[in-house]
Amino acid sequence: MLTPSSVRWPTPRSYSVSLEEMYREVILDHYRNPRNRDPLDKIDATAEGNNPLCGDEVTIEVSLNGDTVDAISVRGQGCSISQASASMMSKAVLGKTEKEVAEITDTFKKMMGVIDTDENVVDDDRPGATLGDLEALQGVRKFPVRIKCADLAWTTLEEALNR
Amino acid sequence: MLTPSSVRWPTPRSYSVSLEEMYREVILDHYRNPRNRDPLDKIDATAEGNNPLCGDEVTIEVSLNGDTVDAISVRGQGCSISQASASMMSKAVLGKTEKEVAEITDTFKKMMGVIDTDENVVDDDRPGATLGDLEALQGVRKFPVRIKCADLAWTTLEEALNR
Amino acid sequence: MTDWAAIRADFPILSREMNGYPLVYLDSAATSQKPQAVLDAIIDFYSTTNANVHRGAYSLADEATSRYEDARSTVARFIGAQPDEVVFTRGATSAFNTVAYGWALRNVTEDDRILLTIMEHHANIVPWQLVSDLTGCSIEFVGITESGLLDMDDFHRLLDDDVKLVGVSMASNVLGTINPIAEIAEAAHRAGSLVIADAAQAVPHTSVDVYETGADWICFSGHKMLGPTGIGVLWGRPEILEAMEPAEGGGEMISDVRLDGSAWAAVPHKFEAGTPPFAQAVGLKAAIDYLEAIGMDEVERREQELTEYALKSMAGVEGLTVYGPATAEGRVGAISFSLADIHPHDLATILDQRGVAIRAGHHCARPLARTLNVPATARASVYLYNQESDVDALIGALADAKELFSVA
Amino acid sequence: MTDWAAIRADFPILSREMNGYPLVYLDSAATSQKPQAVLDAIIDFYSTTNANVHRGAYSLADEATSRYEDARSTVARFIGAQPDEVVFTRGATSAFNTVAYGWALRNVTEDDRILLTIMEHHANIVPWQLVSDLTGCSIEFVGITESGLLDMDDFHRLLDDDVKLVGVSMASNVLGTINPIAEIAEAAHRAGSLVIADAAQAVPHTSVDVYETGADWICFSGHKMLGPTGIGVLWGRPEILEAMEPAEGGGEMISDVRLDGSAWAAVPHKFEAGTPPFAQAVGLKAAIDYLEAIGMDEVERREQELTEYALKSMAGVEGLTVYGPATAEGRVGAISFSLADIHPHDLATILDQRGVAIRAGHHCARPLARTLNVPATARASVYLYNQESDVDALIGALADAKELFSVA
Ligand SMILES: Cc1ncc(COP(=O)(O)O)c(C=O)c1O
Ligand SMILES: Cc1ncc(COP(=O)(O)O)c(C=O)c1O
After folding, report:
1. Which of left, alpha, beta for C207 (phi over 0: left; psi -120 to 50: alpha)?
2. Do D55 and B52 touch (CB under 8 A)?
3. Nearest-CA distance A148 → chain D (Å)
4. pLDDT tens-digit readout, B90-124
């Protein structure tokens, strides 16, 4: 009775396609090898964000040269989506002006459905979209509870820069 | 529309027999003309009782001569049952020894079902029962919520004498 | 035109017999009955969606959380507020206590005064007495006029800048009186006081816009508005809720717990320690949906009609005294009365033998009972499911009482 | 022999589909599912007996009051107590807060200490932090051993006669660990401290006799033991409840309200301000009746069996770490774990796609999570309606997760 029962669960279907679309290789890569984690010496903007309901945390430090993001550090802990999103974000905004950062943030948030939009922001048939790797996060949209994980770093960056 | 409707309630049945048995004339008489209400000068035992759920209140003062209830004052406010019971009680215990009072109380509480008993304490076919007028309160037994009204004065008297 | 007979048929309990008569339920001011739609919503929730809220990453928990937050949005819309201004509590009483501990205990000192009215329910008195015990602040009571209205002269006389809180019922559960809350709030604010309104007898019966009341906090219960027991609402102005401390501590209301202290979650979660009554929130939403389908204006109109019918019928009973406004205008349908020298408790028993359920007692408002100089009153209260024949049954049973008590 | 398949069939939600799979509910430590008998009791109450309790002289109110007090007696019998030692609250969290405000706030000073354990749920931490803020008392935490047991040496070291209150969970909602409550209570009493026990994860799963625990107060929730949300229980020793002040003020908890102060009703009503969750009490009674029909010993035995099966199955998953006791003995069926470097939140999402509902997070026990040095864990918890195939489904879905995360 106490050894694993012989009534096995029906032969596993392969996990759903949506899951595969969320956990793309590039995301796991950023989760496991997060970029831009070294603390900065010169910090012009910083903020901490957390998602109290699932415990994801992220700390962002930005060093500005004029209005250009000269260096960025993103550290935190949490699920693969929150940490990969933070890492990819750090790559995407490095070297960009604050205005460009705001645009990328906007495009990202539209892609994730966090900001309403009429247009189909990122369209697989439109290879010229500006988000690059970040588009991999589109798969998260099928998991509404996880969208706030993807969004955490972006909201925290906005907070840092708007202070 | 706003004058009393012509759809009258079905011709009133006469109110239930149980109600008639509860609101006997002797009870209404004690309710309206409560006995032994004058405050005492010499007070040997006193207690206040109340029934927080319906607001009935009773204050009892007893003057003892040896162990005999020489004088009693029962004042209060509340429903007919609580006040009539108090008034009838005052009549029943006046001139009795504390032991006799305890016996009457016991018989009364048994009649009301407040104390369990095997025998049928008061039996309509047994005219020799000792409670006299108080037997009129038997009708209350059919209204379990009201039993505590009938019991209030008795519990308060017990409290006064046991102090 | 609303089909009130059909509405009535939605309430399963109303087809019950009581002591050989159809049940005539005239105690809705104490608690309301529930339509089938509310019962269905509760069962549906438990049978399909039950999971703890704000906790799980799995779909079921997400569905449960959505249903819970959806209920919050519904309540908010219903009272003209934003969702994050709506705190779910155990009931109106808990809502008052949340403000007592979360605000008053930390903001009121022994030099301050709290101004209440003599017609307040104990829920809007005792929490402030507890605060007074702990802080030393004093409490004063605005009186009423002969006709059962709030004595506004007395109010203005007692209101000065030592007053830090005014607590007033929007409608009295004893007198039925509707108080001029906007006028009171304006004067209170001018004097530098905050205002807490007891809406327990208002929200179920009339359309309430919290911002129009002018109050800073509003408290009411779900069970008096067709919803389940175990849930109530505290509404507060966002900046005030923001500045308040939580009353209760526990899970869900924190953003972090460290050994040396904790940080609170955002409003309204800060005030919802532990597992909230989420199934009850879903039931309350169903109740509001039900009320809104009829329309609160229509509900109010119908209750006015019934109240007027009741008051007129009662005026025809010799020996009967009504406490509170004599006409349906300016009052809700809670009608307190006495009949000759028949004690209300006896009245309730006699009426009950005809299936008529009314309340007898001090109605959790003893200071008012003392002011009226009656130890107790009888109270009949109507809601949207009542009908003229319920009033007729009441009047008929009052005749029994008079006969039993040999009252002419 | 109990027919566990028939038991399972009593829970309507368990026949639900989730993301194309049968729902596998493994989050009962957060909240339990409800058998049809509990749903029926709630609906029956609202459809036939609903009226406010302890208020009306009419038959319906009397019936409602009897049902409510009958529920109290049932709870009392279930935990080996007397009815008037049982206070109905909104939930376990509210029960703790009742003691925090009603006792600690008035009996603990800045020279005193409150001793908790590092494995406490926030419900048994944050209320004491609020008390500490208001009184200046200090709080200390007993640690745990490597194997997830309470460090009793640490406990005895920290216990001295400045300690006025010891707060300890009978069973941890994260580690599953069952703590030696009687031993703790005895030592605490010898040191002159009172003891409050968190029974939220004990009463649903094992037969608890409050006097055998040795504790002075015990808190638990209805929703974790097949009952509705919105109700919980505070049990306390009669002489202690007697001496406590009420936490909340309002109707029903008074014997008199005067303008200058109030007198409290008798215990337990003193602690039940306002309209209590009476329909929920009726639901809780039905839940207890259901559990007792099976027998708590049998429930415990079955859960031990499932827990052992789960632990064994999980031991076979490479990369999986269980936090807390490794065998079913001395623990309840809440099993926290992690799998390789897959974040618990990701695990929960992946499992959910197979219909498997587990929790991920700090489980309202952040101090413990910090001690374990994990930001979050995954937690699977079983109850009497689970079956071996639920565990199999969990194990199968864990394989998906490993594959998706390319974990060997
Ligand atoms: C051990 C423990 N204590 C207390 C609680 C709090 O219970 P509730 O949220 O029902 O108030 C819980 C449940 O979350 C728990 O698991
Ligand atoms: C005017 C008023 N305020 C407050 C309350 C308290 O509501 P609850 O008992 O649901 O907490 C009531 C109901 O009894 C009421 O009528």
Report:
1. beta
2. no
3. 12
4. 999 999 999 999 999 999 999 999 887 766 555 55
